[in-house]
Amino acid sequence: MATRVERDSLGTKRVPASAYYGIQTFRAVENFPISGLRLPVEMIRAYALIKQAAAVANASTGHLSRRHASAIGRACREVIRGRFDGQFVVDVYQAGAGTSFNMNVNEVIANRANELLGAPRGSYRHLHPNDHVNMAQSTNDTFPTAMRLACLMVLPPLRQQMRRLEGSLQGCARRFRGIVKAGRTHLQDALPVRLGREFGAYALALSKARVHVELTARALLELNLGGTAVGTGANAPARYRALAIRALRQWTGWPLRPAEDLMERTQSLGDFARLSGGLRSYALELIRIANDLRLMNSGPNTGFGEIELPAVQPGSSIMPGKVNPVIPEMVDMVGFQVLGHDATIAGAAQAGQLELNVMMPVVAYNLLQAIRLLTNAARIFAARCVDGITAHPQRCESLAHRSLALITALAPQIGYLNAARIAKESLQSGRSIQDLVVAHRLLDQASAQRLLDPYRLSR
Fold first, then answer.
1. CA-atom Rg of the chain in angstroms
2. Catalytic site residue from 18, 35, 316, 429
């Protein structure tokens, strides 16, 4: 393999001649052969936006030549279009704070900009990764800013799929609104409910969780760009911060604004932990709802059998005809993974010391991965499961009439102890509650039938 020699503050190294990354990236590749995982492409796009905005700001303040700013801007736009995705080779588990990734970005942009200026890759005499591409910046303000922008990129698709799933559940609520079924608490017989109301409650629970995610995401609009190393803005011109954020606001259309306190934003990853907590809450609701559907679908002959989920694939390699609730099972697994992501983010968020939390790369990876997983899971859950659910009204009604909890409606008339005695006798004898209260002359037939009507009780 052809190589070129590059130099940094530690010495020289041979770098692949075809690479747009440089010596500091190559050192990171050697130092961190950990997982084979890379930061998501949104981090690449976000970082390129930041470098482009920095070049515009530095040119406006007179610290960067227009010629260099133009070359950097063009290189950034090519990175944003995905031309150099294969050049971002640093492992997720890397140098603290994401310095290796920042330098990977700086070097790719610098080498491409040098090409545009007529210089070969690895020749940094005219345009340098640190001196020009990283001008007025630090990893400590650019990496968290990139995290915020990357999250803002991927949250709209998540919000769309969340709403899509809510709509699917609301559709079930409308279709099943007249179907009465046995309610259950502690997985034991409870008073009857309407199947449609169960699904309506699911939709509302997810709606509330979505709103919580949306509220926590608003804090991402505050950027600490311009705070540089420790939130003091050292080495950044006075107007740089406002100019760079204005450029990002114009390009993205988002109401981005400078952070209230640059030092707080540099020290704390609390905004990301709160967003992750919102995703965790949503995942918990998804898990619960998916498991309810698995229970109501159980059978077909030996379970609840109240609903039927769409058959999307054969369920067994050995039992012919078996169909499993594979989509809710997938949703459970995604939910568990998101809980794991949140635990990692929580651990990383509390691990900062003094002026910086250096655990940003693992937070970025886990947060963006959790958002992507929930986006895809919600989309598939709606399209390949919830939309196609059918109900078994006769089965639902039969179980509702057999529920021992119907006796609850009679307690005000015959007393709690009498009601408990009737319930116990019904369970032992197999006779219905209605037959027993009439046989024991506790109520007449008409009263018993009216009071025990599951439709009335499920209103």
1. 30
2. 316
- 316 is annotated as an active-site residue: yes
Domain boundaries, the chain: 19-135, 141-225+260-393, 403-457
Annotate 52-61 with b (16+ C-beta within 10 A) or e (fewer). bbbbbbbbbb
Q: How far is CA 424 from CA 23, 147, 410, 421, in A?
A: 79, 60, 14, 5
Say which CATH architecture domain 141-225+260-393 belongs to: Up-down Bundle (1.20)
Give the pLDDT score at 459.
85
270-279 pLDDT, tens digit each: 999 999 999 9
What are the structure tokens assigned to 423, written together?
A: 């319930």
* C-alpha 372 chain-centroid distance: 6
Q: Which of 267, 260, 250, 235 is nearest to 63 (CA)?
A: 235
Considering the domain 403-457 in this protein, what is its CATH number?
1.10.40.30
Q: What is the largest CA-CA distance in the chain?
A: 102
**pLDDT of 160-200, one tens digit each?**
999 999 999 999 999 999 999 999 999 999 999 999 999 99
